[in-house]
Write a structure and sequence with these properties.
heterotrimer; B: 485 residues; seven-stranded mixed sheet; 12 strands; 34% helix; globular; C: 134 residues; alpha+beta; three-stranded antiparallel sheet
Chain lengths: 443, 485, 134
């Protein structure tokens, strides 16, 4: 077997050193009643060539670009990833190294993640970003738990326009804690209705996503002001990180903690994972942050170097009193994001974000011309909700056969919006794609 | 090979990203604009992030140089105990980058994602078979995430029974994620000491198990590399008082095909795909921590579940007792592909062989180094063995010094100062993918270092000297954290 | 790390089991961490102190001290209300290492019951205990 280098001679001479006759003798400490003496009922080994065939067959059975025109966002976005990024990410010194606990032989990972932390912090307008979390949903859940730890208050308010699956993850995390989660409703124009906050007491934090699940841009500044007037923490979330190439970032709008998703930044969708949880805060709260942090320092010769720091927050030192249980994070995904942002650049990200916005606006305009209603009149980024006629499910299904995925039906998440669909347009959809979509839904 | 592996390569200095570049450069091919420029309310527009502008050449040189400062499994032996740094087959990387997988949106209609769903369904079956459990979820994105999922399942189980309990028993040898996961779930971890053999004793558990204890969190084999021989009796005691047994399956690499956890009293466990199942560690992640459960805990698994109906696969949500969701979508799917490919490549016999050879390699190292280093538990180990720096105390050489000097010899150090029950612990886990020659070279290097400790201890105190940097000032890094540029 | 004989235990303070010290200064008590503890911990990187106005019972956790790789909980040697905290430790946690009985002090306490000082060890008893544990 190509990954098992031992020859029979190797095994024999090693067994001799151990004074035993065969490999089974090495398991003398396994009590007889704990042993499984049969064979594992698994398929026989495939050669590399058979494996290729098998996996290609599975992969071909998936609806993806360019064959399909997919107008889906909702927390997972199709963006172009430069060939250079995929290439660099294949370097095995990055891929096959471990967590940089031995910093002297991990300066590559450490400097790269320090750079990622910096770029993520700058993107969000915050002072400190962690070295990554699993995804936007868990980053948000950790942000809220962090707020509870800091304020010592046991209730959080979250907007109902935060991604429905994120809200479910938050509920799952909060279930055994005894902390309360209340949801804020939304207004007719597709943004959060925060008036209910006035009556709420003992809140640790309020969390808002912008752009929100409907794609609408929330007024973070007003919401942030409201939170601070009440002396509660303002938590901002996001699913489309690229938006901040164009829009005002949460830090500039008063966010205390930000927990969102970085998949748009050079990470393929991959059926939802691995993703990139981005978590950031001010320096004020840095010792309450969960997850790893890379810091800059000097070595014995005075040369600049990087090292994991503030480790006393983490599980391997603090154990049950740690800020979280997180150990393995999504480091390689953070590296991908840094490489992507380095490639796109400050000038480029603006242009790319603007292009996303313009493409979505074009589709909106064409749908309006074709007689459809855009459900919410708030400004959006690259996603928006459109109302399709009653019975559109049949059309939607028919379009799948034409290899067009015309958005996400909102009915399962917002029953009051039964015929409304969330459409997403990124720089990967051409004008022709959009014209084809409009033609098809019109007919 | 007579020369030492470690030497000095050509390591090129490379500044930080924002210290490079020039405004107007770009490393990204902007797509053709086929729509009009639209305006947006001034109030909403930000200044844009302060990022450098770099060309593709700038970016490629930057990361190529950084990569060269790193040591990975592909560079050399990485005997980190508890981490199972086995070789990551390249064919698995290829499968994970197939466009049908990378381009897939997680909310595609089931009918359009049959390839992914079939793979997930089959993979769950494989893990059920390997663990001897009944059902599996692939949603947790890392081992600790799986531990939390398991704790949430235990919590939900007791809640359904109407008996809310407050404690979980956690052995003193437990990995830090164990008590941390316990706390995240609102439980209080109750410590229990291992006995002189380094394993849990039945009496110790019997003494503390009560009706207020939700369960026990064991690691088997444990972090000393020893099989918890009393596990069945311990499970009986815990079950008798209505508790559940969680097993941290991080060390599964020792017993694949030889022990089925579901048959020895375990109710719920997580596996680490980035350990036992060869997916690469990525400098800290991503990983994947699937959780497998016995039949009576199946209703609590996160949703959606992949279900097979007449040869097609669907995602089912209708599980009213589910704990809910632990990830936004389906977990680390891109990592799961690699582990699936690994299991398909190895087949049942080679998985068992892998465990046998992992145990062979660890015992061989234990035998060959036990004269050189202090061995606190001189008995057969499983896939890892633990030494300490006791013999080097006279030379004022600590585990840390030996670890740093190993780098100059071309090896990544073993895990140090864990488990806590052994002061100055050195935990060595070679894995089965290290050949005899490489292991012999490692043994020689360690022996040479122990001799140096006697003859020239400063070589160790000032190590490493062959890496990009010397030892770093971690004290200032913690006193005056500089976490962003 | 120092030998036990090198540990400095001045005679003008009393010592708690967990190596906090307490010094009576007029009608208030000043509290800190003793030389043995700072030596064991190594370079101290962070000290988390309570707020002025907080009250604690004798033996209650009131502060934490961190080195790079360890965290140590500190327990108040006498009951009382915190009337001052050493804010200098925020910028310079190394004061605890360099001057544990002087500039490296943690808090000043308005004591609830001065007789509690009698429960604490003298420098002689503390040294005996350290030698015994060797």
């Amino acid at each position: 077997m190509i990954y098992l280098p031992h020859t029979d001679e190797d095994i024999f001479s090693m067994l001799q050193v151990l004074g035993v006759d065969n490999l089974d003798d090495l398991f003398s400490t396994l009590p007889e009643d704990c042993r499984f003496n049969g064979d594992l009922n698994l398929p026989e080994a495939l050669s590399e060539w058979e494996l290729n065939d098998h996996m290609s067959m599975l992969s071909d059975n998936m609806a993806v670009s360019p064959e399909y025109k997919v107008f889906l966002g909702a927390g997972s976005y199709e963006h172009f990833i430069p060939a250079s990024v995929s290439y660099l990410l294949g370097r095995s010194e990055f891929v096959t190294s471990y967590t940089p606990y031995q910093p002297e032989m991990s300066q590559g990972t450490l400097q790269a993640i320090y750079e990622y932390q910096t770029l993520a912090a700058r993107l969000l307008g915050m002072e400190v970003a962690t070295a990554s979390h699993y995804d936007g949903a868990t980053a948000l859940a950790e942000a809220l738990l962090m707020a509870v730890r800091i304020t010592k208050r046991k209730k959080v308010a979250i907007s109902s326009l935060i991604h429905p699956l994120y809200r479910r993850v938050v509920q799952t995390y909060f279930e055994p804690t005894g902390y309360e989660v209340v949801e804020l409703p939304y207004l007719n124009n597709g943004v959060t209705d925060a008036t209910g906050l006035d009556e709420m007491n003992d809140l640790a934090a309020v969390a808002i996503q912008s752009p929100n699940f409907f794609g609408c841009i929330e007024n973070l500044q007003v919401l942030g002001q409201k939170a601070h007037d009440k002396k509660i923490l303002f938590v901002a979330s996001f699913t489309e990180a690229l938006a901040y190439g164009l829009l005002k970032n949460p830090g500039s709008q008063g966010a205390d903690i930000v927990g969102g998703e970085g998949q748009s930044l050079g990470i393929p969708r991959s059926f939802g994972g691995p993703a990139l949880g981005i978590l950031a805060s001010g320096k004020k709260h840095m010792r309450s942050l969960p997850g790893r942090l890379v810091g800059k320092t000097k070595d014995l010769d005075g040369k600049t170097g990087f090292v994991l720091t503030l480790a006393t927050r983490e599980q391997h030192i603090r154990r049950e009193k740690a800020t979280s249980n997180i150990c393995t994070n999504n480091s390689l995904c953070a590296l991908a994001a840094a490489m992507y942002l380095a490639s796109v650049g400050g000038t480029g990200i603006r242009k790319l974000a603007q292009l996303n916005y313009d493409k979505a606006e074009y589709l909106k305009k064409e749908l309006k011309k074709a007689g459809f209603t855009i459900t919410f009149d708030s400004p959006t980024f690259n996603e928006f909700v459109v109302e399709f006629p009653f019975g559109f499910e049949a059309t939607h299904k028919h379009l799948l056969e034409k290899k067009i995925i015309a958005g996400l039906c909102l009915a399962p998440y917002y029953p009051e919006l039964a015929n409304h669909y969330l459409l997403c347009v990124t720089e990967t959809r051409s004008k022709n794609d959009m014209d084809a979509l409009v033609r098809e839904v019109k007919s | 090979m007579k020369e030492s592996l470690g030497t000095t390569g050509l390591l090129i200095n490379e500044p930080l990203l924002w210290e490079k570049g020039k405004k107007g450069r770009c490393g990204f091919s902007l797509p053709r604009r086929d729509v009009e420029l639209c305006s947006l309310d001034e109030e909403l527009i930000g200044e844009g992030p302060d990022f450098p502008d770099l060309s593709e050449v700038d970016v490629v040189r930057h990361y190529t140089r950084l990569a060269q400062w790193n040591f990975g499994v592909d560079t050399g032996m990485y005997p980190l105990g508890s981490c199972t740094m086995k070789y990551s087959p390249k064919i698995n990387e290829k499968q994970a980058s197939l466009p049908g997988f990378t381009g897939a949106h997680p909310l595609l209609p089931s009918v359009l994602s049959q390839g992914a769903l079939k793979m997930m369904f089959e993979f769950e079956q494989y893990l059920n078979e390997i663990t001897g459990m009944h059902a599996t979820t692939l949603q947790p994105a890392a081992g600790a995430h799986g531990e939390l999922t398991g704790m949430l399942i235990i919590y939900a189980f007791h809640k359904k029974q109407g008996s809310q309990r407050s404690k979980i028993i956690v052995p003193d040898t437990a990995h830090g994620t164990n008590p941390a996961s316990v706390s995240l779930c609102g439980y209080r971890p109750v410590p229990v000491t291992s006995n002189e053999q380094g394993i849990l004793s039945v009496e110790a558990i019997a003494e503390i198990m009560d009706q207020d204890t939700a369960g026990i969190m064991v690691t088997n084999p444990n972090t000393l590399g020893l099989f918890e021989e009393n596990i069945q009796k311990i499970a009986e005691i815990v079950h008798a008082k209505g508790g559940l047994v969680y097993c941290d399956g991080a060390n599964m690499n020792a017993v694949m095909g030889m022990v089925k956890m579901g048959d020895i009293g375990i109710d719920v466990m997580q596996l680490n795909l980035h350990k036992t199942f060869s997916t690469p560690h990525g400098g800290g992640g991503p990983g994947s921590g699937p959780v497998s459960v016995t039949k009576h805990l199946e209703p609590f698994l996160p949703v959606p579940r992949v279900v097979e109906e007449n040869g097609t696969y669907i995602l089912a949500e209708n599980y009213p007792n589910s704990i809910g969701k632990i990830s936004a979508f389906h977990g680390a799917f891109g990592v799961v592909i690699k582990a699936y490919s690994y299991i398909r490549s190895m087949g049942p016999e080679n998985l068992k062989k892998a465990s046998q050879l992992a145990v062979l390699n660890a015992n061989y190292i234990k035998e060959m180094l036990k004269g050189t280093l202090h061995l606190p538990y001189d008995r057969p180990c499983m896939h890892e063995c633990v030494f300490s720096d006791k013999h080097q105390a006279a030379q004022k050489i600590a585990t840390l010094d030996m670890a740093k000097r190993l780098m100059d010899y071309g090896f990544h150090p073993p895990t140090v100062y864990f488990p806590l029950v052994v002061p100055g612990a050195i935990m060595v886990e070679p894995t089965e993918t290290e050949s005899k020659e490489d292991i012999d070279q490692f043994i020689e290097a360690f022996k040479a270092i122990v001799s140096e400790a006697k003859e020239n201890p400063d070589m160790l105190h000032h190590a490493p000297k062959s890496c990009k940097v010397k030892r770093l000032d971690e004290v200032t890094a913690a006193r005056k954290p500089c976490l962003a540029g | 790390m120092k030998e036990i004989s090198e540990i400095h235990l001045p005679d003008d303070v009393r010592y708690a089991e967990d190596h906090e010290w307490a010094r009576l200064e007029g009608n208030k008590v000043r509290v800190g961490l003793d030389d043995y503890a700072q030596d064991q911990l190594g370079d101290i990187v962070f000290v988390e102190l309570p707020q002025v106005g907080d009250t604690f019972k004798q033996g209650e956790e009131f502060a934490t001290v961190e080195s790079v790789k360890a965290v140590c909980e500190c327990y108040l040697p006498v009951s009382g209300k915190i009337i001052a905290v050493n804010t200098a430790l925020e910028e310079s946690p190394e004061l605890v290492n360099n001057n544990p009985y002087g500039d490296g002090w943690f808090v000043e306490v308005n004591p609830g019951d001065l007789s509690e000082m009698e429960n604490l060890m003298t420098h002689v008893a503390c040294m005996e205990k350290l030698k015994g544990a060797e």
